[in-house]
Amino acid sequence: MKEISPRPERVCWEVTRACEVACLHCRAASVRCRDTVEIPLAEAGRMIDRISALKPEEFWLVGGDPLQRPDLEEVIRRARGMSVGVLAANTDRLTPERLRSLRDAGVRRVGLKLDGPDAATHDGFRGVPGAFETALAAAEEIRSLGMDLCIDTLIGPWNHGELNDLAERVAALDPAGWEWTPAIPVGRAVRETLCTAEEIEDLFGAFFSIRKGLPFPLRICEAPQVKRYARQHGYPVEGITGPDAARGTLFIDHQGAVSPNGYLTVPCGNARKTDPGELYRNHPFFLRTRDASGVGGKCARCEFLKLCGGGSRARAYIVTGDFDAADPACAFEPV
After folding, report:
1. Is the peptide bond before 64 cis (omega within 30 degrees of 0)?
2. pTM for the full model?
């Protein structure tokens, strides 16, 4: 079994599922109103203390739209001992005043979603007119306030051919980092939002071409088979992948359910009752996600299995219904 640190690289807490917009792909299948059984601030303190004891490299408050919580700054103050980030929706709530309030409460980084090089692609995909311009204005404000700007891009047929133009746009924003995630059909996303395995191979080529010209880190998430591509084409494998369901992540939904990440939401317990660190270290499903020895299909005979772990376990499970299936986004055919 793969060695795993008791310290997760990334913990995400979905502080609310409420959001004023309804993006076509939304992982959370967000709703307009806050759930009455969200974890309240009075309960959150003990959970945050337990997460803090894990000493994660990053603690992200996500949604929905976290800015829908009027007590978000109080949550952040309770978590000040960690490296706190907020993944915000591109809505009218993303104002300079709110960003300054987040900074003053202790936020170190703000994540923004940018899925196209222009409004036509980004707003068309998000289904929210004006979201592109909101993101650009917020990016400038985040940097001016001294917080790290992190850009997240979901990749699918809508933007697969525009990555070079998108890279120019993102580089102009001067972020601290950029992450790509090939789409996984969860929440409101459907299988039509998936790239083919062959398109993913092209994506890997674009990834390495774009990455070498950037002054900030670019990583790809939920596609660890990029390491196989790197090995085949002579690129270094270190630092090219972000955390995913099998590699150092922990996700807590708005009601407290704990799972490996926001794509692989197999309930493993509830953070309102159980220490999430205990679940991360010892729950059978968490242990299974980190053990590639049971992965079947073509992965079972693949020479790169130990390197990539069988690709995205989340995508394999969501698309095929079989957690141990090969990731359908891998085009490599082992002998």
Report:
1. yes
2. 0.92
